[in-house]
Design a protein that fits this description.
mainly alpha, 131 residues, 0% strand
Length: 131
């Protein structure tokens, strides 16, 4: 039961990340995509749950072995890493420049969390191979 819930949570996370990326891409650098929200609202509504859900999924299923869940966790982490790389490659926005934030301060946590989730996926895969 916990494994099924974990896979659903991770699937939701991947879906949210794909919607997030599509919304950003459709905005064409203007900041508003097809959802009509700014980057902060998008980050809170889609980004934060996308980070929390795979971590929760790993820990609720930590005693169960699953190759499928491990792969899904790696996909989720990779999508977060891609998002961090895109932020690193972008020009700083005027709002970012006015507030004194750097691109590294925006993208660094994304890269760290993405790497952490990939590591959780690797642990889940390693456990499934040992069984």
């Amino acid at each position: 039961m916990a494994l099924k819930a974990a896979m659903i949570l991770t699937g939701i996370s991947i879906g949210l990340l794909v919607i997030y990326g599509a919304d950003v891409a459709s905005g064409g650098g203007t900041g508003e995509g097809f959802l009509g929200s700014d980057h902060m609202t998008r980050g809170i509504g889609l980004g934060v749950p996308s980070i929390i859900l795979p971590i929760v999924a790993f820990f609720i299923s930590r005693k169960e072995h699953s190759r499928g869940l491990g792969i899904m966790l790696i996909i989720s982490g990779a999508l977060i890493l891609i998002g961090g790389a895109v932020v690193l490659g972008m020009e700083p926005s005027t709002a970012m420049q006015e507030s004194g934030r750097s691109v590294i301060a925006e993208a660094g946590p994304l890269v760290a969390v993405g790497a952490f989730i990939i590591a959780l996926g690797a642990i889940k895969l390693k456990k499934s191979k040992s069984v």
